[in-house]
């Protein structure tokens, strides 16, 4: 049923590939997955029409090469106005592109859960809902720090807790 030569050949081929794969990992630590992973995060602050917004977002990215990276993050945001307060939590998918070492272009899709409350004419109102945000950004990178601006291209002033679609950011990855 089984040809002994075929079994020997495929067994030898499997072992050769197996030892080649693990041999490269043992002698070349740069090929390890975690050698290409960086952790860090972002800070964001926004001011508009008497409103204040702040964001904290820890992130992890994988560097495919010196030009492109992708990763995930979690985010927390606080917004406060004269009669309005909101807290947001969420997760994000991140894509980074560095055409030259000092310039970083970014895209980040966030899915956020919002809990907000406001006071209108003495009456308190509360609301909770989920909404997406899609940020496109550009920044200047020096060492592990990138400073720049990002813009929410699907900004909805009825649902977004950000005071406006444009938001400065500082990102640090180690």
CATH topology of the largest domain: Porin
How much is the average pLDDT?
83
Secondary structure: number of strands: 8
How many discrete structural domains? 2
Strand content of the residues, in percent?
A: over 45%
Report the structural category: mainly beta
* Euclidean distance between termini CA atoms: 56 Å
**Biggest sheet record:** 8 strands, antiparallel, barrel
Low-confidence regions:
6-27
* Topology pattern, helix = H, strand = E: HEEEEEEEE
Order of adjacent strands in the largest pleated sheet: 1-2-3-4-5-6-7-8
Write the CATH architecture name of the largest domain: Beta Barrel
Tally of separate helices: 1
What is the C-level CATH assignment of the largest domain?
Answer: Mainly Beta
Question: What can you tell me about this protein's structure?
Answer:
- This protein is mainly beta and 174 residues long.
- The chain has two domains: 1-31; 33-173, Porin, CATH 2.40.160.20.
- The chain has one helix at residues 4-27, and strands at residues 37-48, 51-63, 68-80, 84-100, 103-120, 123-142, 145-152, 166-173.
- It has an eight-stranded antiparallel β-barrel with strand order 1-2-3-4-5-6-7-8.
- It starts with a helix and ends with a strand.
- Mean pLDDT is 83; it is low at 6-27.
Keywords:
eight-stranded antiparallel barrel, mainly beta, single chain, 1 helix, Porin
Topology:
Elements: H1 4-27, E1 37-48, E2 51-63, E3 68-80, E4 84-100, E5 103-120, E6 123-142, E7 145-152, E8 166-173
Antiparallel strand pairs: 1-2, 1-8, 2-3, 3-4, 4-5, 5-6, 6-7, 7-8
């Amino acid at each position: 049923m089984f040809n002994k030569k075929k079994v020997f050949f495929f067994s030898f081929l499997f072992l050769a590939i197996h030892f080649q794969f693990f041999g490269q990992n043992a002698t070349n630590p740069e090929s390890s997955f975690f050698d290409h992973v960086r952790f860090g995060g972002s800070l964001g602050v926004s001011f508009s029409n008497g409103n204040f917004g702040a964001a904290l977002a820890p992130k992890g990215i994988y560097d495919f090469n010196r030009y492109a990276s992708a990763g995930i993050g979690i985010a927390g945001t606080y917004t406060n106005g004269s009669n309005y307060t909101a807290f947001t939590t969420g997760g994000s998918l991140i894509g980074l592109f560095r055409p030259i070492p000092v310039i970083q272009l970014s895209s980040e899709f966030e899915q956020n859960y919002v809990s907000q409350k406001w006071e209108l004419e003495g009456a308190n109102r509360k609301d909770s809902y989920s909404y997406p945000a899609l940020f496109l950004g550009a920044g200047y990178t020096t060492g592990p720090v990138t400073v720049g601006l990002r813009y929410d291209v699907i900004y909805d002033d009825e649902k977004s807790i950000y005071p406006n679609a444009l938001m400065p950011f500082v990102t640090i990855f180690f």
